[in-house]
Write a structure and sequence with these properties.
CATH architecture of the largest domain: Orthogonal Bundle
CATH topology of the largest domain: Arc Repressor Mutant, subunit A
Number of domains: 2
Shape: globular
Number of strands: 5
Structural class: alpha+beta
Strand content: 5-15%
CATH superfamily of the largest domain: Winged helix-like DNA-binding domain superfamily/Winged helix DNA-binding domain
Strand order of the largest sheet: 3-5-4
Helix content: 40-55%
Oligomer: single chain
Radius of gyration: 19 Å
CATH class of the largest domain: Mainly Alpha
Distance between the termini: 51 Å
């Protein structure tokens, strides 16, 4: 197949998936090597970005996914009939602590927040934004928490390295 046909195939797979697809997942479906898939996906991302339409291809959770243009979010929400999936301030605070300090136990989260975090952690687990990553080798073997792939998707991040650093946050606060 030539590039245009391969890009159309990749586009169709992304459209049907609804989930981020990694280059290795795409390789398992089509007969192309990963560098070639990466090249074609980069071209597709650029094409969608340059036309600035209602749909984009974004790099999310170490994969690619078709997403709606955020400019049209109010209308998309009306069509989907979805209530806001916003997180409470307590949930955002807890999620930030977990994202930056993972793996972390609940007691450490509570030490930073200064309040009980049982309910918030339960909600974040139910929403699959965090997961249990194991148990800490300490008395009582407390559970360790970390973020999930759904966390990356929710915030439109490729990976955790895209989280702003403390220096970035301090710089923005100073503005």
């Amino acid at each position: 197949m030539e590039d245009r046909e391969n890009k159309s195939l990749l586009e169709a797979l992304l459209f049907l998936s609804g989930e981020p697809l990694t280059t290795s997942a795409l390789k398992a479906i089509i007969d192309l090597d990963e560098p070639e898939i990466q090249r074609l996906m980069n071209e597709l991302v650029a094409e969608y970005r340059s036309r600035d339409g209602g749909v984009h291809i974004a790099e999310i959770a170490n994969g690619y996914q078709m997403v709606t243009n955020s400019h049209y979010a109010p209308w998309v929400k009306k069509l989907a009939g979805s209530e806001s999936t916003r997180l409470s301030l307590a949930a955002l605070e807890t999620l930030a602590i977990i994202a930056y300090k993972q793996p972390i136990i609940k007691a450490e989260v509570e030490q930073v927040r200064g309040v009980n975090s049982d309910g918030v952690i339960k909600t974040l687990l139910e929403r699959r934004l965090i997961k249990i990553m194991g148990k800490k080798e300490a008395p009582g073997k407390p559970l360790l928490y970390g973020t999930t792939r759904d966390f990356l998707r929710h915030f439109g991040l490729r990976d955790l390295a895209e989280l702003p650093t403390l220096k970035d946050l301090a710089r923005e606060e100073a503005l």
